[in-house]
Amino acid sequence: MPSTAHAPSSLIQVERVAELRAQVRAWRAAGERIAFVPTMGNLHAGHLSLVREGRARADRVVASIFVNPLQFGPGEDLDAYPRTLEADRRQLGETGCDLLFTPSVREIYPRGQDTHARVEVPGISDILCGASRPGHFVGVATVVCKLLNMVQPDVALFGEKDFQQLLVIRRLVEDLALPVEVVGVPTARESDDLAMSSRNGYLTPEERGLAPALYQVLKTTAEALRAGEPVERAEQTGLNALAAAGLRPDYLSVRRAEDLAPAGPEDRALVILAAAYLGRARLIDNRRVNLD
Ligand code: PAF
């Protein structure tokens, strides 16, 4: 059975790399620029803002939906990760995406994931979320490198909510000289400032009421730093505030925005990153702070 299907709004869906490449080659031959939005599906307004940004920067937008097993650790939510292909396809078509790539695990890891070559970005992969999720960023870097090689876009778009992921990908692209521009897109938020995330769906109504505290605490911590509070004290106050709000903090850390090194007294461009558990969900968020 051919794996090419046309959803409403002329969205093309392909499952095979050969089909993806043939279509992208045809667009390139016509002189068109290609933008790429990799996702794991269960799309929300944040993903759609990446597609819109892609449209603004290129003639064609390719999106992928692939729940990448290599970036999930043992006991994480790989099996439970929400899969909502029909709704995703409709939203992508309505937002002006041209092609949706939905490879199988076999298409991406034909010899199995355990013996597949891996891409490691040392230095920033084992800290923060990487410390709590060993191997996660190797899984992300490997699949993103592979998807970029498959699509060969001019520009690739990633959400700033996953700030550490964005830096890992920037480093990967720079170190391996991949010919693609990486663009970070601001975090999409609910009306109460909770960062949009596919994992917010795990929250019970009561937990959903508590979740905005994560970003509130980041904002308060940013104000404290701007008011001259020392980094360590601001971090500890932030951790205490998260716990007091009913979240179980994993980390709250003030880092140099450029490379996530611990913030020193000379550093002005900072980012506060935090992760916290709430029921079944592990929420992450961040806030930039410029001390100049
Ligand atoms: O951010 C995500 O959804 C994933 O980590 C990505 C970049 C699609 C790689 O699987």
TrEMBL record:
Annotated binding of beta-alanine, by residue: 71
Record-listed (R)-pantoate binding positions: 71, 165
Catalytic activity: (R)-pantoate + beta-alanine + ATP = (R)-pantothenate + AMP + diphosphate + H(+)
Gene3D superfamilies, alphabetized: HUPs, Pantoate-beta-alanine ligase, C-terminal domain
InterPro entries registered for this protein in UniProt: Cyt_trans-like, Pantoate_ligase, Pantoate_ligase_C, Rossmann-like_a/b/a_fold
Pathway per the UniProt entry: Cofactor biosynthesis; (R)-pantothenate biosynthesis; (R)-pantothenate from (R)-pantoate and beta-alanine: step 1/1
Residues forming the catalytic site: 47
GO terms assigned for molecular function: ATP binding; pantoate-beta-alanine ligase activity
EC number: 6.3.2.1
Subcellular location: Cytoplasm
Top-rank lineage group of the source organism: Bacteria
Pfam families: Pantoate_ligase
Summary of the function given for this chain in its UniProt record: Catalyzes the condensation of pantoate with beta-alanine in an ATP-dependent reaction via a pantoyl-adenylate intermediate.
UniProt cross-references to NCBIfam families, sorted A to Z: cyt_tran_rel (TIGR00125), panC (TIGR00018)
Additional remark text: The reaction proceeds by a bi uni uni bi ping pong mechanism.
Record's protein name: Pantothenate synthetase
